[in-house]
Every structure is written in C-alpha cells, then in structure tokens.
Design brief:
Number of strands: 8
Order of helices and strands: EHEEHEEEHEHHEH
Radius of gyration: 18 Å
Number of domains: 2
Strand content: 15-25%
Distance between the termini: 35 Å
Largest sheet: 4 strands, antiparallel
Length: 180
C-alpha cells in the first residue's frame, strides 16, 4: 500500500468511518456455489453516505493488469492507495475484464474498509462444518489506535462505539472511562 506523506487526518476519518459503518447485506446469489454474496451495489449503498459524512472519497480504476483503489481525505488531500492484480483467463475478453474489475472492486472495498458482510464470509468453513467466530482486536493503552479512541471520546463519541470494534482491556477501560 502507498500513502501520502502524512495520513493523520485520513486515519481520523477512517476511524470515524469504522465507528459508523454497519454490516453489508449479502443479497446477490451465486448459483455456481449456491451461496449469497454482497455485490458491489450493496457495498456502495452502505459505504457511500458514511464516506461523505467522514470527508472521504474513493476512486477505483484499472491500470494495465491491476485495479488501483485510492481513498482520499477530501479536506487535507491525504490518501492511501492499494493495487490488486486482476485475474482472468483471457485479457482480450471484455466480459472477463469487466467481471474481474467488478470482483476486484468489491474485494478491495471490503478489505480497505474492514467491512462486515452479513452471513459470514467464512472461507468454506461452513460447508466443512467448522464454526468460525469473528475476533475483535484488543485495545490496550499501547495499541496504535488507542489515541484515536481517546480522540473519539473527546469529540463526543461513546465507549460503546469503541466496543463495537475492539475488546477493551481493563487498563484501557479505566483510562477511557476517566475521559467520559
């Protein structure tokens, strides 16, 4: 991933985005695998209003054999960029190119914005009978995002917002509750 020289404002906006985004509904059917998935429209419908609210916008475009996804912080101009290789059998087939681009766009957005997709995307574990639980990152006073959590509270956010994304250690909770 590439970034602008500074990403302070972008990181704050991404944190705000994470505190507001909800799960994306898997509403499209994949008849080949007899499963559902969140299509590009469903992802964009969920993220676009929150991106605007947080002062962020995204561009996605093909560049030779890859998809370039760039997230910008509108006010500061800060950005981060990701490249994803487009996989297809025949680069001369426009239908395959379109499918590969759409597929890459969905996965890039889901990954960059850490999107939860309803009906867990469990990598085939459901079919094999293995139960998978989602794991939240632990938030400690030494965590890289702890300062962002503090900033979130100081700007009127709630501990509940933070708990939706992290498991808060007792030590971190004492500090965060003292801020509220």
């Amino acid at each position: 991933m590439k970034t602008s020289e500074k990403i302070t404002n972008l990181t704050k906006a991404m944190f705000a985005f994470q505190s507001k985004v909800s799960a994306v509904k898997k509403s499209a059917n994949n008849p080949h695998f007899k499963s559902k998935y969140a299509d590009l429209s469903a992802i964009l419908e969920v993220i676009n209003p929150i991106l605007i609210e947080c002062g962020l916008f995204v561009t996605q475009h093909p560049n030779e054999d890859s998809l370039v996804t760039t997230v910008y912080h509108a006010e500061s101009g800060e950005w981060m960029q990701s490249n994803q290789v487009l996989r297809m059998k025949d680069f001369n087939n426009p239908q395959q190119q379109g499918s590969a681009i759409t597929y890459a766009r969905r996965y890039a957005l889901a990954s960059i914005f850490n999107l939860n997709q309803e009906e867990s995307d469990d990598d085939g574990n459901l079919a094999s009978g293995i139960k998978v639980q989602s794991v939240k990152e632990q938030l400690t006073p030494k965590s890289p995002l702890f300062k962002r959590a503090v900033d979130h509270l100081e700007k009127g956010g709630s501990i509940k917002d933070i708990e939706s994304k992290f498991v808060i250690t007792d030590e971190a909770r004492v500090i965060l509750e003292a801020i509220k």
